[in-house]
Amino acid sequence: MTHDVMSGGQPIQQPDDTRALLETIYQQARAIEGGEVASYIPALAEVAPEQCALTLATLDGQSVSVGDAAQRFSIQSISKIFGLMLAMERVGESLWERVQMEPSGQPFNSIVQLEWEKGIPRNPMINAGAILVADVLVSRYSASKNAVLSLVRQLCGADDVFADGRVHQSEMAHGHRNAALAHLMKSFGNIEADVDEVLDHYFWQCALTMSTQQLARSFAFLANRGVCPFSQKRIVARRDAQRINAILSTSGMYDQSGEFAFTVGVPAKSGVGGGIVAVVPDYGVIAAWSPKLNHYGNSQRGLYMIREVATRLGLSVY
Amino acid sequence: MTHDVMSGGQPIQQPDDTRALLETIYQQARAIEGGEVASYIPALAEVAPEQCALTLATLDGQSVSVGDAAQRFSIQSISKIFGLMLAMERVGESLWERVQMEPSGQPFNSIVQLEWEKGIPRNPMINAGAILVADVLVSRYSASKNAVLSLVRQLCGADDVFADGRVHQSEMAHGHRNAALAHLMKSFGNIEADVDEVLDHYFWQCALTMSTQQLARSFAFLANRGVCPFSQKRIVARRDAQRINAILSTSGMYDQSGEFAFTVGVPAKSGVGGGIVAVVPDYGVIAAWSPKLNHYGNSQRGLYMIREVATRLGLSVY
Amino acid sequence: MTHDVMSGGQPIQQPDDTRALLETIYQQARAIEGGEVASYIPALAEVAPEQCALTLATLDGQSVSVGDAAQRFSIQSISKIFGLMLAMERVGESLWERVQMEPSGQPFNSIVQLEWEKGIPRNPMINAGAILVADVLVSRYSASKNAVLSLVRQLCGADDVFADGRVHQSEMAHGHRNAALAHLMKSFGNIEADVDEVLDHYFWQCALTMSTQQLARSFAFLANRGVCPFSQKRIVARRDAQRINAILSTSGMYDQSGEFAFTVGVPAKSGVGGGIVAVVPDYGVIAAWSPKLNHYGNSQRGLYMIREVATRLGLSVY
Amino acid sequence: MTHDVMSGGQPIQQPDDTRALLETIYQQARAIEGGEVASYIPALAEVAPEQCALTLATLDGQSVSVGDAAQRFSIQSISKIFGLMLAMERVGESLWERVQMEPSGQPFNSIVQLEWEKGIPRNPMINAGAILVADVLVSRYSASKNAVLSLVRQLCGADDVFADGRVHQSEMAHGHRNAALAHLMKSFGNIEADVDEVLDHYFWQCALTMSTQQLARSFAFLANRGVCPFSQKRIVARRDAQRINAILSTSGMYDQSGEFAFTVGVPAKSGVGGGIVAVVPDYGVIAAWSPKLNHYGNSQRGLYMIREVATRLGLSVY
Questions:
Q1: Nearest CA to CA, how far is D164 from chain C (Å)?
Q2: What does the domain layout of chain C look like in residue ranges?
Q3: Which of D100, D249, D259 is closest, CB to CB, to C261?
Q4: A171 carries a ligand binding annotation
Q5: Hey, what CATH topology would domain A3-71+211-312 get?
Q6: What is the pLDDT of residues B56-65, one digit of tens each?
Q7: Domain covering D3-36+50-71+211-312 in this structure, CATH number
Q8: A105 and B100: CB-CB below 8 Å?
Q9: What interface predicted TM-score (ipTM) does this complex get?
Q10: CA within 20 to 30 Å of D274's CA: A246, C93, C274, D39, which one?
Q11: pTM of the predicted model as reported, rounded to 2 decimal places
Q12: CATH code for the part of the protein at D77-206
């Protein structure tokens, strides 16, 4: 394999090479110390901290995994992409009158910025923006949770994706900052439905559990101009796939998004459950998971694995 | 590999088609009303407002232009890329201890964010970051202006690139907000040289005048993994070309960067002189110019032309 | 009457003179145009806007009124003083670990400042501070509303003081900004009780209705070093009376507190129902009411009446 | 009227008692450990840290001192009152269009608030406000420093008050945050004169050196409705004396102003040189000095001495 060949567009890896590469990176990641499991709710704090998984799914339909790649975990903010897709489908361009598409330059849960922007969240990847999206779903779908479940199950090709009830309830009980964001938006007239109902959907969605194998498969359409490479079904319009990738590029990795673009250079989304999904247009999806987080809330080992795969395979879009 | 393959497999445009496409887009742009010429200094306010130019330079060495593409204008913030390149070369990774690489989520001249971040600018494309970069140049080069001139002249292949002395002096006299940013960084210990000397370099650099033809040629190396496609000389390491493109993607278009990524999807930098340069990795550079600005400070017609070229040619990196 | 004599400590007004002075000021106030009745809830917006009342109660037990001084109105933020008194009594100095005593320099409902200060309100007169005080009452009194009612009825000498149920319910339904403040404090661990219960007490307390005659009598103890001049009962310690007056001086008039100190110079508290109560240490209390508010949320005519009485009688404490 | 009557009716202190009281308080203050001498410029950092002084000047012309009360020190921000007096005299009410009179709720050198308020400082006691006042002096007086010197020498009755040249120069060299404030105001059009000239006046004024004896005498007119009790000359109008006292009450003690009102209850101004001057209307002035500061920038021992004198003599205006 060489970087140059790869970036010329030809496949550079045979499956065996890919597996060996992923295995090497996975073993290196497992040696990384430090980081903290998310502890703001007990249900998340109890996860076995050393678990680690890496999956690479390419557009030719191959999927290679190492580690705990079949183990399901709380996908948390990664679920924001599912919500966004459904809201874009339902309300179209008018969505962008209620939420911007600009990077925030602020922590993911900043209430200061929301106040300045008069209740209009900076983008749908920060919490306020995702809560607004949840309001769209609750207001415009007769059964918003079912709509999400249908989408997710279709994308990952599994009928048994569920939300973790204990995580869901625990978030409800401890989610006072998110409640503050929702009430502030409501006070600006930017939430239509009942605040408690919106928060219920939002926390439920965050509590979905999936494995890296499922995540890699679910987001492959974003690398394939909107078409699922496994089912060949069009999931979203090509333009919308590019738009979602653009938002992930500027805003997907919390307040480390710029550094991630700088050092890795692909659209990605992370969650405090320790998962990260990276989309490589015209190539495939890398999904990584390990529960211990850096101080930005991104998985420490996950970041390492994504960065190494992207760098060694020359996957930067820039 | 060709861009055609990348964007879906079909050949899109022959050279003649390209000229016709640019001409069409240029004529449409000229019909756009509204916007305001930058008026914060008299020297900029006096430019003929209806001027308009568009250049597309591709990696095969072709360059196609329409409109006032040989007319030089004040490149303003586009010059920040030149400064950044020289600072990266001179101080390496240590640069990133003094300036971050995160999108700002704030106006380009925000002093609030600089205060919160204790004098560490969010990125080198906002004014504070570019002033920090100017401090590096003034402190580490024996003749910082000459260093910039040499680089620019080499990149655009012209020996007669100069700063406009009247713009330079006018900025010095009216640049109190930038002076505030510089003094605030100095108070945090993040400016080494004399503040007046740093500002002199910064304003001088912003006053450089170039045409869209020169800009397109100058930035072609960023689309070509660091190698100038005209001279075949390596300008920066491949990794640094990707890094600069990443910063442009998240932070190049002021507080419209997210929307630009969303709707256009390529790294770009704009200046209040009305110029915009967009880098399409593995394809080429689009440079546009027209003086009237929207309220973000981006050229109204310039934005239109860049977006149309990118969209019609399918150039989004996402 | 002369200013000098007054400020030398002697009574300068005979009762008849006082009545004539108040009548003159009242008539001038009624001629003032402009201002807007609080309209954020229907129940407040429906009040007859031209009503106007002025009462001066002095420490010798006299009380002189003009206008609609027996008409009860929604005292709103004036109630924050009653809540504060009960919280100070119940938890003593430890209260000041949970709320500061500094002027805010921000709108009364600023969520930005509350975020910066990590959920510790700047003072008990802004909404966040008063909600925190409500949390103390709800947590530490078996029947917090009864505790407030008992205090208020004792102070004003009337058994029929009530909260307006319609205003109370209307505030509950529209109080999303206050809910955001409460949830944000809860997320910082600075609210003990259930958020909904705290908000219920807070909104109920704001919905108390009293007349200027009742308000003037109720706050006379603050002008009399803690002793009610009518009943001769000590209400609070002398030091606490001074402390409450100090807080009113720096923070009682919303974001117009500094100007009020500058132009009037006495401790005072205002409410969006249009009431203002001013405490003149060692002299008495001025209570004014008229529903139309200036853009700070202070009664326009009320401000005029208080300022004129204080200025003409030379009552500034400075 | 006498102060004794005001504070409850009983005579409190004979002169001998006063000296004994001050001596007791002074000795207690000297036992207080902790705090830090201002170290942002070398010239201030070198002062002998254990020095301590206390002066009480009453309106009957008495002045009692203990400790290093004849020792001159850098009065720093206390000088803001002198500047304000001259600006009020020269431009009258129009001053308040360029600076507000509201407490800031922010650190004394906040640039964030100045940005929000579009270059209009919150009050003349924070740095931005005092720099604005310096602009008025520089613009409207032919020799602004002489104007200040004349005023100060008249007030304290000494011809040999000077600025410390070394402190002045040192502030100039290190005052980048103040320079940032000045340039930001200039960028908003709220500074008329040359920024360097304004800063030169401002830093010079801060470098004035006076003793507690001189300070107590200088500010006695503020306690006496504008008339100097020593010379019987009217210094400012009665209304202006009250207004200055009002500003000191809400904004004189940096971000500890509210707590100071709460616990002490008199108008006061402090400086980072360790001096504090407290004005007791109709009674006199307390001046204290000791160089070690608490984290708000107020003298630790100075605060103790002022509070004890005010509390034991019952001097709160509230």
A1: 33
A2: 3-71+211-312, 77-206
A3: D249
A4: yes
A5: Beta-lactamase (3.40.710)
A6: 999 998 999 9
A7: 3.40.710.10
A8: no
A9: 0.91
A10: C93
A11: 0.92
A12: 3.40.710.10
